[in-house]
Amino acid sequence: MGRVLAFFNQDAQLVKALRQGNAKAQRQLYDRYAAVMLGLCTRYVGDGMHAEDIMIEGLMKVFTKIEQYSGEGSLDGWIRRIMVNEALGYLRKNKKSMEENLQQTIDVVAEGYDTDADLEVASLMKLVHELPVGYKTVFNLYAIEGYSHKEIAVMLEISESTSKSQLHRARALLQKQLLEMDKDFNKMINHEKASD
Amino acid sequence: MKKHPIDEIFKDKLGHLPKEPSAQAWEKLSGRMSQSTKRRPPYWWYAAAASLLLGALLWGNMSLWTGTVAPPLGVSESEKVMNRPIEEEPTVVPLTAEGLSKEPAQAPSKPRENAMAEPLAIAHTGHNPVKPDLQKEKAPEVKEPLYTEKVAVIAKPKLEQIDLEADLKLPKTIVPEDLEDNAPANRVILVQVEEPTATEADRNGRLGRLFKQLKNVKSGEPVNWDQVGIDPKSILARVDDRLVGSENIPVLKNRRIKQNSEDE
């Protein structure tokens, strides 16, 4: 897939062109943000195919609602917010099936990572996806996206205390998993040294 | 506020983690975008249609208001009368002072829809004092004041004495066939149609009145200057004092000559 040259160097120019429905500007925005936004959606949903659908829906909203972007915040932040909302909407709709397909999702997440660094990232991603959906969502929103408990409470229609307790439990589970991972990692290194 | 170490680890590693979308992702997105732009309804069509409809409604409303378009009088009035329930055995109560005061109690089941409907219904039944009045050309003395007063108070309709048997070609009376067949021979249906009394000048409003007065000026008829909105005293030309009473005023001279010639 050939990349389109960056005709619109600044966000303001890009936004202006997007408002005019410029196809090249749309393609440029896609090239710039599609991969990162797909990573974000995957963190929430887990399943790569569904995550891609969410990303496409989110980008469609970006193109159609670009008039609503005031230009006060960063374009990146605005698009992220749209993607997060899309992902939360998907989770709300498919709450039951998400719980059922949890194990399948965890296995899918680890695919596509080859190098050591990638493996570390894949392991972390897998840990996130092993969390129950509620813990995972609150952890993603608070720890990675940077939303406050008040905002999370509004977004997920839960109380602030529920958000705090879910975050606390998510952290505890992740910490435990990381320690086990570290033990396994140390064992693996020791075994490799002994075999040499 | 210092971030939790677990949060930091995951944010650093996963916060901006890219994942390459599939090759078909862009085609999907562009396809959906083109679909959505195609599916977008032509709003200007809706706007044009709405404005046309609004204009037509306004025109219709204005036409009705000014009276240029009037509903068919005879048919609508007749239909109103035909749709009213017919009382088979109306009770005729002799007129007394008590009877007048207790009028609602004597006819409790009879709904009073409007002022005009009352005399129409009375005429409709054929068992009221109006009918003998028409048939025998002579009204019973006892019952007459009751209805004449009611008619006068309620709607003041012009109850004309019509010999229906002689003149069946009433233009604004419609008798349905089934009613004709089943009704007793002495049943008479009277229809009182009130035609709008507004003149053309009234209907056209101020402009019409103005034209009427101007027509009066032209034809030499008395003019109501209030309707024209002009005070003639304030606009009449002032005659020079030297000319008043003078024999040399050409207008007066001409008039005098004319009068003399007419007298002769």
Automatic annotation (TrEMBL), chain A:
A biological process from GO: DNA-templated transcription initiation
Transcription regulation listed as a keyword: yes
Gene Ontology MF, one: DNA binding
Source superkingdom: Bacteria
Protein name: RNA polymerase sigma-70 factor (ECF subfamily)
Family: Belongs to the sigma-70 factor family. ECF subfamily.
Annotated SUPFAM superfamilies: Sigma2 domain of RNA polymerase sigma factors, Sigma3 and sigma4 domains of RNA polymerase sigma factors
Domain RNA polymerase sigma-70 region: 29-96
Keywords: Sigma factor, Transcription, Transcription regulation
Domain RNA polymerase sigma factor 70 region 4 type: 123-174
Pfam families attached to this UniProt entry: Sigma70_r2, Sigma70_r4_2
UniProtKB/TrEMBL annotation, chain B:
Superkingdom of this protein's organism: Bacteria
TM segment ranges: 43-62
Keywords from the named record: Membrane, Transmembrane, Transmembrane helix
Protein name: Uncharacterized protein
